[in-house]
Amino acid sequence: PQDSEKAKTFVHAFLKRSMPKMADEAIQDMLTRKAVVLEHYHKKQTKQKRKKTKGFTAKQRRELRLFEIEPEQQRYAIFLPLHELWKQYIRDLCHGLKPDTQPHMIQGKLLKADLHGAIVTVTKSKCPSYVGITGIILQEFKHIFKIITKEDKLKVVPKLNNVFSLELDGFISYIYGSKFLLRASERSAKKFKLKGTIDL
């Protein structure tokens, strides 16, 4: 029939366009089969490797004095707005510090919260000279807190063997520094035990 000849001509021309590298004999051989699988040629895309940005080493940070606070900036009044921001941050984190809020829930949130801007007091210490130090936390490292006092003095207080108290909206929380030897970024992922032995 005339329609079948047109169909053969169309299929042959279609296959020729789709597979230009194939010879006419091979195409004719494919037409004798019941199924025709069309080949697809695609260009291989080369993946570009991402370059990892290298940060400063600890030695370079010390040389550049990145974490040092200049003496003219060591004033308590400068950091009071930071404390107000921290209080609002904690209220939002705890969905409002209401009188009926369960203390262990707030305690759990505070253990993982960022403490930069919090006002803390050293309540117990194996070194008596640290007891009574009160101020705003300016920097937190793995083993120390840097605190600015109302007398505009920058104190470096170790976490080890010290107990810190933190007050917000009538809620007082105690932080045992010996169990707190972590960087701020590491604390957010750590699971703290609610019960256990507590010592300095």
Question: What does this 3D model show about the protein?
Answer:
This protein has a six-stranded antiparallel sheet with strand order 4-3-2-1-5-6. Helices cover 30% and strands 19% of the residues. It folds into two domains: 1-33, no CATH class; 71-189, SH3 type barrels (Roll), CATH 2.30.30.210. The mean pLDDT is 81. The protein is built from six helices and six strands, in the order H-H-H-H-H-E-E-E-E-E-E-H. With 200 residues, it is α+β, with helices and mostly antiparallel strands. Strand 2 and strand 3 (144-149) form a beta hairpin.
Overall pLDDT = 81
CATH superfamily of the largest domain: Ribonuclease P/MRP, subunit p29
Q: How far apart are the first and last residues' alpha carbons, in Å?
A: 99 Å
User: Helical residue percent?
Assistant: 25-40%
CATH fold field value of the largest domain = SH3 type barrels
Percent strand: 15-25%
- The radius of gyration is 34 Å
Query: Could you say what the CATH architecture of the largest domain is?
Result: Roll
CATH top-level class of the largest domain: Mainly Beta
Shape category: elongated
Flag low-confidence runs.
Answer: none
Largest sheet: 6 strands, antiparallel
Number of strands: 6
